Amino acid sequence: MSVTHPLLKILKVALLELYNEGGKIYDTNLNLVPFCRALEDIFRLGLQRNHGHWFTKADYWTVFIKFGDKAGPGLFHLIKFVKDNQKAMTDQGRGRLFIRACLVKKDLASLVQKLRDDTAFIEMWYDSTSILRDDILSEIFLSLLAEVQNIPFSLYLKNASFLDTTWDMAEYRDYEFVPCNVLGVHLHYVDTHLVVTDVDAESVAAEDGKISVGDVMDELYTESLRGAKRGKVRDLFQLYKGMPVYVSFVKARLPNGEIYRPIAQLLREVDIDLSHMPIKGEPPADNSVYRKPAHAVLPEEEKDEIPVHGPDGKAEFTVVYRGFYPLAEDGRVDRIHDSIENVITDSGRRKEVVKIETTETGVEVRRLSDNELLLNHSYTEVSACGRRTDMLLYFGYIAGETTCNMAKDFKCYVFESEEASEAKIILCSIGEY
């Protein structure tokens, strides 16, 4: 008769799903949350009451803290990192941040091995129902965690302000704005979060539609704003007056356009309904071909810029083709941001020097060495183009397998230019059609 446990079965299935991805695991991965939930359930199973928590059951984060110095230097520093973090305010949130940090640093198996070996400590905190106290089940758990070591987790640990309530992760954006006295956003404190309730037109914040109503201002000049005293934003602006503005936001909308559930709850408290507000970058309701012009997504664009074309109507540039990222049915311009990161951080992709041509009818990409046609998309197939403001040499365009209003298989094609100004001109060449 085989020895197993339902939670270990769940963890194994979730682990297999992640393993089959074959690349880096980002916060947007749909299989990440079930995997983390399974880990959390295992660490909670069999926890004993009291130990200083007279009215509530101690959570697993308390166990990790008490283990402290026994964990070794690496784990000790991870524990300190979480304790010093101002964004996770509950034991649940801190425990989740610690698990995410262990996945990134590949320290989870080491932690469980040390816990398992300290019999007296484990028996003090867990009862006999715990997987950690069972010799066979804990060995199976460790074997699964050994496989976890082979998975490259690339999780954004700054994105921690909602871990108190959910494992689901929102989009997190870091922005740099020009020096200014007023950013142009109206903020409202809701349950320790600074929620954007309005954005002034023509303000720095309104540039390219980066910041939207419902977004949560999470950091300013790298300082956390969660639970900050009123006036901290003003004080930081005054302290760093004359310097570029570095600010981070938790986005109200997910990549699929849905509203992030924890933020939706905050918005109800201030009577803001985003369901009636248009989604930036969403195709028009009449199903006509949507293409956001390049100057709408580039921070420094001038709307009257005209790309340089040759006498045959072509604009031709030599760049490096970095590869593509599949987007399924989502051809919105918002996906360019994460697609570029996914492509350029995949070391297994092959780089090719190519010529990219924007003709009167579409975009052609040919290998420079033998002139072989690699990509050919008509403008009716191109749904968007743009680049990240923090990686100006990289740019991309999104195209489907047929016209945009009928396409079901969009891909973002990513390129690298030698000059940021050249990338800008190429995007303007695509965006003007």
From TrEMBL:
Gene3D superfamilies: 1.20.58.900, Pleckstrin-homology domain (PH domain)/Phosphotyrosine-binding domain (PTB). InterPro entries: PDZ_sf, PH-like_dom_sf, PTB/PI_dom, Run_dom, Run_dom_sf. Residues 26-160 form the RUN domain. It comes from the Eukaryota. Residues 316-432 form the PID domain. PANTHER family: FYVE AND COILED-COIL DOMAIN-CONTAINING PROTEIN 1, PDZ DOMAIN-CONTAINING PROTEIN. This is Uncharacterized protein LOC101860264. The lineage of its organism: Eukaryota, Metazoa, Spiralia, Lophotrochozoa, Mollusca. The gene is LOC101860264.
